[in-house]
Amino acid sequence: MTTTMTMRGTEAGGVLLLALLLLSTTVARAEDPYVFMEWHVTYGTKNIVGTPQKVILINGEFPGPRINCSSNNNIVINVFNQLDQPLLFTWNGIQHRKNSWQDGLPGTNCPVAPGTNYTYHWQPKDQIGTFFYFPSIGMQRVVGGFGLISVLSRLLIPVPYDPPADDLQVLIGDWFTKDHAVMASLLDAGRNFGRPAGVLINGRGGKEAANPPMFTWEAAKTYQLRICNVGIKTSLNFRIQGHDMKLVEMDGSHTVQGMYESLDVHVGQCMAVLVDADQKPADYLMVASTRFMAGPSSVSAVIRYAGSNTPPAANVPEPPAGWAWSINQWRSFRWNLTASAARPNPQGSYHYGQINITRTIKLMVTRGHVEGKLKYGFNGVSHVDGDTPLKLAEYFNVSDQVFKYNQMGDEPPAVNGPMHVVPNVITAEFRTFIEVVFENPEKSMESMHIDGYAFFAVGMGPGKWTAAERKTYNLLDAVSRHTIQVYPRSWSAVMLTFDNAGMWNVRSNLWERHYLGEQLYMSVVSPARSLRDEYNMPENALRCGKVVGLPMPPSYLPA
């Protein structure tokens, strides 16, 4: 009897051990959930701001499909290029940790040829918030192909506000009626394409934006609006007739929840707000207006309270005036130090103000003419893309055949000389904490973006930057974000740790200037060559230029 019981106990223990091993194996192999999409990218005709024109559609939609996901989801998008030109998509604000292979720019990826397809696979790793995507080659983005990306927190991570009644997209942007190929030809010829023809909200402009109503709200409920400026040139002010907005998130970070009558949203930036439907049932106008340009332009869309038959009031809210208002609003934005980030720890657990700066890179917008044609750049260097993506050249160790590192210095040249038109690649030591100062000597607005990272926007001010300006920095709760505006004849300073290995684009979001060379690439290489720091080139990665036919380099070492 005792023997039998012992055997049964042993069998039970073995079964339990096997179950535990199977469970641990399953957990170890578990992957984050997948979101699959298939996009067919085509041309179509839309009547926008009163003019029929060719636009870029995704699955027949303009704007393109919204990507709804949660932190760490695997996003798999099979893109079929049915245009007559090569195509790439970039994911504005998505950091692609260890994975610049998915960044979708000419410096990182070979384009998807007409009549072919390519599958992107990326994760919003440890990210939450509001972002957008757009086509990155040439001037294609001016005619569409853009759409919203909303990244929700995982279920176990608390969000610092109650779930809204609905989560709505508001894509605003300036709009031009010229074809993207025509606009590129004008720039290639040394000409510009002038002022925008109007402003759009969710792809609608003019009278079409106001009829039918864009949203229907239930009284006494709260709605979340995800607002992105997807335009190419113009800062916009957004407001809602009779309603204040509670700012809760900006470029992927929870913010201190302040109330605003209107918000300046600069090119490439995104914000999320909560709005209470607390007014009497009626129709109300959402308005987006151009800022900082002569002859302002606006577009209005209608929010209808359910059951309303009362048209919007005639007193359309006016936009604010001047630069001071906008700068003071920026100074009011604060990082929410107590809210959880994408991981279960407070956003403010990273004390960036206590880290020693190892390097300062001062990037001054440079404008000049080369062979009689206008060019833009940084510090006298205007970037040009080649036939071989920079990332591929670096990975296959043929960089010397494609570009030279560090042809641009960390300081603007003391004397303005001729513009140098070359692939502009500078290096940053892995995991160093660097201060980047953007200087804009132009009379017009700028908007700057760094791919692969979120940075702390610590300061801005008029004139030229000096080290004394550090005394004015916000070293406690500056919002961590990916895009910062630079006012005319002013500077903006950001700080970040270059801990994401890869090849990353630093650029003007003003696409005319970007096209004309106001961009560079930052090469961040891990000396360990370890999969802990960077992924190998994906098996499906396209090859072009000088890497066609080359043997694969050795794999990065296991983590």
Automatic annotation (TrEMBL):
Q: Which Gene3D superfamilies match?
A: Cupredoxins - blue copper proteins
This protein's UniProt keywords: Signal
Q: Which InterPro entries match?
A: Cu-oxidase-like_N, Cu-oxidase_2nd, Cu-oxidase_C, Cu-oxidase_fam, Cupredoxin
Q: Which residues form the Plastocyanin-like domain?
A: 41-153, 170-307, 387-527
- What start and end residues bound the annotated signal peptide? 1-30
* GO molecular function terms listed in the Swiss-Prot or TrEMBL record: copper ion binding; oxidoreductase activity
Q: Does the keyword Signal apply?
A: yes
- Its domain of life? Eukaryota
Q: Which Pfam families match?
A: Cu-oxidase (PF00394), Cu-oxidase_2 (PF07731), Cu-oxidase_3 (PF07732)
Tell me which PANTHER family the record gives.
Answer: MULTI-COPPER OXIDASE (PTHR11709), OS05G0485800 PROTEIN (PTHR11709:SF478)
Family recorded in the similarity comment: Belongs to the multicopper oxidase family.
Name of protein? L-ascorbate oxidase
Q: Which organism is this protein's natural source?
A: Triticum aestivum (Wheat)
